[in-house]
Amino acid sequence: MKTIGFGLCLASIAFFVFISDARAENDNVSWVNMFIGTGGEGFGVGADPVGPQTPFGNVRLCPDTGVRGTRLPGRNFGGYHYSDSNIWAFSHTHMVASGTMDCGNIGVLPMREATAGGLRGPGYPFSHNDEDAMPGYYEVTLGEIGVRCELTATTFVGVHRYTFPEGAAQWIKFDPTHTNDKNACKAAELRVNADREEITGWVESGASYSARAGGYTIYFVAKFDRPWKSFGTFDSRETNEGARAIEGTEMGANVFFGESDGTPIGLKVAISFINIDEARNNLQAEVGEKNFDDVRHETENKWRDALSVIDFEGGTDEEKIIFATALYHAQCAPTRFTEESGRYLGFDREVHEPSDSVFYSDLSLWDTFRTLNPLLVLARPEVAQDVVRSMVRMYEQGGDLPMWAFFQGYTGGMIGTHSDSLIADAYLKGLTDFDAEKAYEAMRLHAMEPRPHAGRTAVPEYLELGYVPADVSKTGTSETVEYAYDDWCIANLANALGKERDAAMFYERAKNYTNVWDPQTRFFRGRNRDGSFVQPFVPVNTFDSQFVEGDAWHWRWFAPHDVPGLIDLFGGDEAFVTELSTFFERASRARDTIMPDLYYWHGNEPDIHAAYMFNYAGRADLTQRWARWVAKSKYSTLPSGIDGNDDYGTLSAWYIFSAMGFYPLAGSTTYIVGSPIFERVTIHREAGDVEIVAHDASPENIYVERAELSGKPLSQPFFDHEGIKSGGKLEFWMTSEPRRWVE
Fold first, then answer.
1. Which of 34, 150, 196, 587 could serve as 600's disulfide partner, Cβ 3.0–4.6 Å?
2. What φ, ψ does residue 453 adopt, rounded to 5°?
3. Is 248 inside any structural domain?
């Protein structure tokens, strides 16, 4: 999901290339550059948080930054932006590279004195020379006050360590009302227990996206590791020394520890979505008496295990850094909401007792269905299985499958019903340990009638006409082609479940994308109820209201489920290849700007599969050429090294698949062959390792001369998941010249 605003480019960004001092063999953690995706301007903002979390963890403890007392619009969706000069707070919740301002709950900052007002700038200046980060750990020294700040985290606990210069006054400001959107806090309560060195309370929040889901309440227990000299509360106007309780939307506590003798101050902040007792239980279960270094090492080891699911050899150092970092970003979300007791707050806002699976939310499905969720099915199947189970529970508890699930509610964000894709993709690839009949019931329901929380727009018109009319929904063109794809996913599951009549109906509906195709212009176009096309027609118009986050060029290729049918609409292979080549050639000649790319736009989602479509027209060499071009030109080791919002790991997962040499057709068992970057990649699966070997792979050898799967030649640039489901060996022989290696 992208923002429709864009940041102002003040000055050239201080570009940063991460070089690790030592990279242990077979230790992917050492290749991760946490600052990739934290920069960019306008529509090129990556928006990845830089701070520590566990894999799929709930707490994302990240610095929130600004330019002294202000924030430039459209840049701080992840809290932190690399070009900012000041740190305002260290807060505990963040969205993962989305294009909207939300979260940033429960701010903490070391201070030189007690102050009134919340942590919303200007904070303290910092320098990247005094900053470091790796999976599970973040460190920075704040200018002016010289405090060394260290952060680590468990699933539900943020762990802080602050070291003040000797002789300096030691104040910690605790602001539960802090959010990235300054108007998000709706209510809060805080209580101080000096005898236990503890602060407890709750905060109710709702910003641009979470408010659409009904907002959320976080309960917290903050525990310091030493006695206080004094304490008090603050609101927007004044401090109140010795006060033990306060309520409001801008308030918190100031805690004083006396003058520093160089000993660090430790703070553990546990959160819960159930109650304060549950937060205290999370604190005890996850941290207990462990010190900062204990927690840091445990979290680093969790990331070491998570990043070892895919090993890689070969490639350049830059490619290794990009790949390892993408693998990190691909395991930051979705978010675990099952707490340490096994209980969780569901979509009915009721507390549910422990079950045999983890409940996940923060499902940015319009983005992630394309790449991230198929990657989880392949490399983290236990997570993918629980995500599908979670969606079925959402249906049971709230009445609908989600479109964009956030915390404990439906946002209704974006378009399409891409839970269809996730469920079909998982089931067809063997992850069947969920109530598939109930999931299908829910999928069929939102395909056949309007739904209250997360359904399709203009369902009656779509069923009557075979398209969503532009005079009923301005974005009906995009909705039509996405519904056709979703219907195909439903058909695939119906077929697997033996529902032949339904499968035939939905396969027929999967052709509805053709109903908004204009044979004169050879583009998808907005079409009114009377059958007329919307006028005027301007193909290059990024903000065209007929489409969602793109224009006619970007959406021209969205029939991933029926590329042969789309090729027929163009008039055959030659015409299709000519037009698709024009799309990429024009993109390759354009200079990246802060505005959306006029042709191929990798920083957004609708066309990111396009390079793989050449395969269907007999030009696998062009898929290889352009997939490599995207990987080379749209990714780097700079803070701006992701071409746009990473959107919960969507663009990172694109790179992982493409670097391995194939790409998923989500909602099916098909993989599309591309151009592998590394000499050897191994996906470690419980059912058997998948080994990918690219003989003579190099930056020059981007073309596939021939390929084999488990010793059998691939006669076409496609293969099925069944061939790697229980392990297998995919081999490529690479060359520098285009080859027609397929039959």
1. 587
2. -115, -40
3. yes
